[in-house]
Amino acid sequence: MSRLLSKKRQLAGQSQTQLVTPVSANWQYVGFEAHQLNVGETVTLATEDDEVCAVILSGKANAKTQQASWHDIGDRMSVFDQKAPYAVYAPAQDEICIEALTDVEVAFCKAPGKGGHAAKLIRPEQCQYETRGVASNTRHVCNILFGNEPADSLLVCEVITPSGGWSSYPPHKHDTDAAPAETQLEETYYHKIDPPQGFAFQRVYTDDRSIDETMAVEDGDLVMVPEGYHPVGVPHGYQSYYLNVMAGPSRNWIFHNDPDHEWIIERDKKVTNG
C-alpha cells in the first residue's frame, strides 16, 4: 500500500476513523482527524499549538470552545446534499467539543496557529459555493475557510465530482515557495464515495517521477500530498466528495499546472465560449 494512503480505521469503542499528524506524514504543517459519533456521544479536541477548523460533515450537533457555544448546528445528512457545511474555528490554546444530536461525522482540520483570531462559527452562507469546469471536468467547490474567512495558516475546502468525472484536473501542484508564481502547501484529501461501496482513483506524481503513486481510494480513506500533481478520477455510477486541508509557509494558494496537460484549459475555454 502507498505511504501516501491512509485507510479508514475505526477501533471498537472509539469514534476516530482517521488521524494524520505532521510526524506521521513526515511533513511540517497539516494535521487531520475524522470522527464518527453516535447520538449523544461527544468528542473534545485541545488545539494546543494549532488552529483548528471542525467541519460538520453530516448530522446535527452542539459545539463549544472555551469562550463560545452554538446549539443545533448542521444542515445536511450527507456530504452529497450539495449544501455548504457548518464549521467551528478555534485558535491555538483553545478546544473544540462536539456533541452529536444525531449521528454525526466531523473532521478536525489542523495547522500551526498564532492565536491571532477568535473562535467562531462558520455558517453555510459564509462559505463560497461554485461550479467549475466543463463536461467531464465539472466539479462543485465549496470554500469553507479560504478567502472567505481569515485564519493564520489553514485553508479548507470541499469538492464534489460527478459520476465519470475528473477534478483537481488538469493536474496542478503547489509545492514550491516562489510567490507570485507558486506557493508551497501540503494537502490532505479526505474521500467519501456515493454509493459508499464505490471507489475513486487519485494519482500523485512529481515532474521527475521521484513520486509517482496511483491509488484506489474508498469511502473514508485519506490521501496525503506532500508535493507534486494530484488529480482525481471517478468511475461511472459513483460520485466523489473530498475535503481538502492545506497549509504551508504562507496562507496563499497559487498553483502551477502540469505543462503537458495545460492545453486542456484553452480547449475548455473555447467550448465554454462557443
Spans of at least 5 consecutive residues whose pLDDT stays below 50 are: none
The domain count comes to 1
CATH superfamily membership, which one? Jelly Rolls
Over all CA atoms, what is the radius of gyration?
A: 18 Å
- Count all strands and give the number: 25
Question: Average pLDDT across residues?
Answer: 95
The proportion of residues in beta strands is over 45%
Main-sheet strand order equals 1-22-19-24-14-13-12
Largest sheet: 7 strands, antiparallel
InterPro entries: Deoxy-glucuronate_isom_IolB, KduI/IolB_isomerase, RmlC-like_jellyroll, RmlC_Cupin_sf
GO molecular function: glucuronate isomerase activity
Pfam family, one: KduI
Protein name: 5-deoxy-glucuronate isomerase
Compact description:
One of its GO terms (biological process) is inositol catabolic process. This protein is mostly beta strands.
